[in-house]
Amino acid sequence: MVVRVDQQRLYVWENGKVVATFPISTAERGTGNQDGSLQTPLGLHRVARRIGDGVPCGTIFRGRVPTGQVAPILREPGASSATDAITSRILWLEGLEPGRNHGGSVDSFARYIYLHGTDEEGRIGTPASHGCIRLRNQDMIALFARVPLNSLVEILETFR
């Protein structure tokens, strides 16, 4: 997978071809790897954990545990929720570049950087997260179904 921050899009590659693309929302504060920055980390990552298989669409997670509640999904452009919920599925990322996104104060896994569904679908396509990569719930479920554990995710500011 490739995340293009400048385009607010995620591309799924298989056998050298793009087989799916999804609009996303990266961090409102831009890119950066520092703990506490609330920014989306750059670089090569892997899917270290897959969480939420089979839960209903819109299920709210707290501490990566499904609560049993389903979030009301805000689809109006720019609409913000009071809860800013993590919903539907979680793909928890681990950085693979020591000193950039792995280890110390730049560790993506320790920062709880995920690909996840959101209750703020109306903000997809614009930077709005607190560091994670948000997708619409149905898109997150579709992505989760096709992405196995250890899949690579390259997060790029722009295409190099």
UniProtKB/TrEMBL annotation:
- The reply on keyword Cytoplasm is no
What InterPro entries does the database record attribute to this sequence? LD-transpeptidase (IPR050979), LD_TPept_cat_dom (IPR005490), Transpep_catalytic_dom (IPR038063)
Q: Where is the active site?
A: 116 (proton donor/acceptor), 132 (nucleophile)
Q: Biological process GO terms, please?
A: cell wall organization; peptidoglycan-protein cross-linking; regulation of cell shape
Q: What residue stretches are annotated with the L,D-TPase catalytic domain?
A: 1-156
**A Pfam family name for this chain?**
YkuD
Q: Name one GO molecular function term.
A: glycosyltransferase activity
Per UniProt, the keywords (alphabetical) are: Cell shape, Cell wall biogenesis/degradation, Glycosyltransferase, Hydrolase, Peptidoglycan synthesis, Transferase
**Pathway, per record:** Cell wall biogenesis; peptidoglycan biosynthesis
Cite a GO CC annotation: extracellular region
* Family membership noted in the UniProt record: Belongs to the YkuD family.
Q: What is this protein called?
A: L,D-TPase catalytic domain-containing protein
Organism of this sequence: Thioalkalivibrio paradoxus ARh 1
User: Which taxonomic lineage is given here?
Assistant: Bacteria, Pseudomonadati, Pseudomonadota, Gammaproteobacteria, Chromatiales
